[in-house]
Amino acid sequence: MPYTVTVRDHLMIAHSFSGDLFGPAQRLHGATFIVDATFGADDVEADGVVIDIGRAGATLAEITGALTYRNLDDDPAFAGINTTTEVLCRVVADRLAARVAEGELGGNSVTTISVTMHESHIAWASYSRSL
Amino acid sequence: MPYTVTVRDHLMIAHSFSGDLFGPAQRLHGATFIVDATFGADDVEADGVVIDIGRAGATLAEITGALTYRNLDDDPAFAGINTTTEVLCRVVADRLAARVAEGELGGNSVTTISVTMHESHIAWASYSRSL
Amino acid sequence: MPYTVTVRDHLMIAHSFSGDLFGPAQRLHGATFIVDATFGADDVEADGVVIDIGRAGATLAEITGALTYRNLDDDPAFAGINTTTEVLCRVVADRLAARVAEGELGGNSVTTISVTMHESHIAWASYSRSL
Amino acid sequence: MPYTVTVRDHLMIAHSFSGDLFGPAQRLHGATFIVDATFGADDVEADGVVIDIGRAGATLAEITGALTYRNLDDDPAFAGINTTTEVLCRVVADRLAARVAEGELGGNSVTTISVTMHESHIAWASYSRSL
Amino acid sequence: MPYTVTVRDHLMIAHSFSGDLFGPAQRLHGATFIVDATFGADDVEADGVVIDIGRAGATLAEITGALTYRNLDDDPAFAGINTTTEVLCRVVADRLAARVAEGELGGNSVTTISVTMHESHIAWASYSRSL
Amino acid sequence: MPYTVTVRDHLMIAHSFSGDLFGPAQRLHGATFIVDATFGADDVEADGVVIDIGRAGATLAEITGALTYRNLDDDPAFAGINTTTEVLCRVVADRLAARVAEGELGGNSVTTISVTMHESHIAWASYSRSL
After folding, report:
1. Whole-prediction pTM
2. Are residues E89 and B3, on separate chains, in Cβ contact within 8 Å?
3. Burial label, D46 (beta-carbon count in 10 A; 0-12, 13-18, 19+)
């Protein structure tokens, strides 16, 4: 996509992982995720924007707000699923895509969404999808 | 592109936007844009570089220097155009592309240019193009 | 102060400076300021906090909200004053201090306020004061 | 202190807070804390260092390692205490001070320790003490 | 690739460059490179991960550990080669790819590797390849 | 000091350390140092500034320019001295102080100088002095 716009927010959650692979992260622990949501488009609209950045930020805040200050192990949406950084990127991207599809963010030109979540200053993940 | 090289600079401008979409940003305000210019290539040259990074930085500084410490509303180049972050990314990328095409940056291998501009710690945009 | 707590916000303004010292910054231009407000205390309260960080963030947002998306040259509060980064740090710190003194942030233990404002990735200023 | 040296590490924990002040953070949630440990000295030693930075980093890693990937609500050391960012800064600083006092970090010149913990890109706290 | 995971490490080396292009960098000098290694995959594995992030970090640390605290001009692997940031990105990416191919990182789904190396706060490069 | 202003620059050098303490850093290696020079003052001047930030940046660039792209082991100024991050902070601070004392930076109000040098994303040092 030639154009992208990104907005940043964060969430703070508890969770634990299943699988020997995760070592001490099998214990209940937590994370701050810095969430970068990127909207891609082939062109800008007449106003010169990919998307209404104010509404994009507000929508992202709603999505992170529904996840933050919680123990994700207790969220039925994640039953039987490891809420790894990769998986949470997909969850946030899919929820954003649904909101864009409903026309909530005001842009008709958005064709891709990518979400990057930083779990620390030395590790992050991303998930990208088309609309 | 397998290889990229990026150089960073910044500019500090006043501007205003037209369109209800922009809410309070319709008023004259301003921004510092942190500008990241990325040059992509299929291969490095004999010297092991995508581009002469010194000349790349100097060229980017000339381009940002022509925009900085100004009110973009007064620049004829932007008459009738909202100088959104997305649009400014394209402007800087196109100006860099013209300079590369003129051979000023010394690299024959550059095939793409991408410009990312950070308007704050929580919002940025980018524009990518081929040469 | 042994303890500090810091919250970050930002504002985007237009302004110009008076004085040969400022060179091209005498022209109308603008800036994004990343604003870090630090509250210092000798001890934490019973809850284990220097200050209610939620209210601290909300108060900072009100103060930055009153300044952002504006041309500071038109603000009577700054008539005859260069709104340099140093001066804006003092303005924000003084406004925060008044709010703390009114008991709005809920902490009795705060004794100092420091504000750092980043005008770019390569320049910032700060102002510190006691309450 | 004229001289300081800082090393960075991180920890990822679950916890909850007691007190209406904390709103939704009264629920079990979690955080990544980026931990910056600063050692201050009046002078450098003959080698030109405040402290053996390798041992400083290793000691900090031991201290963060004893806290990370855990639910702090279950740690007897924190019974009846809100593990706010401010409090955790003091805990890490005190544990580092004990190690310095035992001569483990190899510096005789260290006189102060300051710990800053970033809970997100928009909030952090610190605690400073003398040795 | 829809999914990526990135881990960060660093190395500190001396080197010099051959070629008039490099100006003063033809002299023996040095650099800290912040190294970001990104693993891309079409899907996550059953555990919800692209790759075992612990093993990814450990493998990256081995590769940076074999390069750090050295004068790259003395390393036979780089005889006759300018160890530019671009070239070092490729070296690290190729070494990581070999380790992934040997099954050391535990992921069968990784299909691409990208390495970004930051030589300063204003310049960085990257190299991307498939497995 | 109530007021501070900081400018950032960087330098890229080779060096080695003497002393068992330094382990592998006894070998010739190198570093990028991100250099933050902070000027403190009790008050701002009539123009509203601690110091002419343009001249401050230019002076810092001269000082870093005299050090960068060199092997510090060959610099007579550092004979018999380990050029640790702490020591280099003092060297840059002292050189800046001499320039301020000569009136080069245009501020009469500067009373302190502090220099922080980042050797990586996980380690930095500082040195502070009065004028």
Report:
1. 0.97
2. yes
3. exposed
